[in-house]
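lol so apparently i was supposed to do this last week
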Amino acid sequence: MSSLNLVPASVEDFRRRAAKRLPRTLFDYIDGGAGAEVTLHDNVRDFQKLRLSQRVMRDISDTRTDIDLLGEKLAMPVILAPVGMGGIMAHRAEVQAKRVADKFGIPFTLSTVAICPVDEVAAVSDTPFWFQLYMLRDRGVVLEMLQRAWDHGVRTLVFTVDLGVMGTRYRDIRNGMAGGASLWGKIRGGPVEYATHPHWLWNVALRGGPLKFGNIAKYAPSARSLPDFKTWVDSQFDPSVDWNDIAWLREQWKGKLVIKGVLDPQDALDARRVGADAIVVSNHGGRQLDGVASGATMLPQIADKIQGDVPLIVDGGVRSGQDVVKALALGAKAVMIGRPWIYALAAQGQAGLERMLALFKADMHTALGLSGYPLARDVDRGALLDHGKNLS
Ligand SMILES: Cc1cc2nc3c(=O)[nH]c(=O)nc-3n(C[C@H](O)[C@H](O)[C@H](O)COP(=O)(O)O)c2cc1C
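anyway here it is w/ flavin mononucleotide bound
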């Protein structure tokens, strides 16, 4: 029997609300993945396929979700992942996300291609946030961006390595984002969609400006629109990057360096060799190479190779507190969530994201308590039925 659906109770509920609030092109941009979206679906399904063990009659009067990571204390092992163009989905989304992350005692990661720039996010509070960077052709720009982030209190740099070439996203093509739409198609996808989403139109399009890539605006002065910015960024992505460039970056950055986008055990060893302080096991939320395995599938192999030398973070398909506990059991120290935080902000603004993180936390407490691991920091493969072997 269907419910009244008055209050969102899951990430999927926020997703559905976001789908109603956002123009179709924007919703598809966040919701979609590369190709036939096989990897996108696997990401979610693989966490669902894992089974937790139920262990009872242990003292669970004091379950705790906090962990230590990279010298920080996280109230729960959840990090808001870098999401480009967040501020076009919800009013100054990156600022709202930072506020909520502060409230929940977890890190927020600002994307290179965010709408809100580093200084606007830093103005929220003195609590440090993480900054994500891609290697740009112009290393001078890279160095300037690093310096600006440092000057605004960033001490953890997330360096994304899985964007050497852009994934082909069918939904974006179908929606005309790559060009080719007829005149009527442009009107239908633009003005008609905007006019039929008044909440977004008022809060984001009319009152949410400036709608540009805040961190790079100064380097692309002739860019007038978001597509102009995107063209500039695409021309700046450097496909020649290799581990030597990361070694160079390591020398430039005095803070913690997190390498994001590793899915192979040998690559994880290389990331460790060039000085990564942490690794994000990730396929970019299924947005890059369709057909690769999920982070959940690859994580145990990578954890076995890395042997705890550097903390592992996993992302892709984490949709609940139970998934967080499963990720810890597979060998992660924490997870990143991407789409969920954008769905929540697009659906209900700051209150929505607060509610969603509260749900994650409550679900984590339940999962920790009923799997017999009161402390998140102690979770190991024993928390999974058959040690999670049904995924391998
Ligand atoms: C709309 C969108 C934009 C993204 N932009 C970036 C980005 O700018 N930098 C980056 O490193 N990852 C980016 N990602 C990937 C996320 O950081 C993260 O790896 C992914 O969303 C995790 O999967 P999930 O959405 O299933 O949680 C983006 C993801 C989405 C959905």
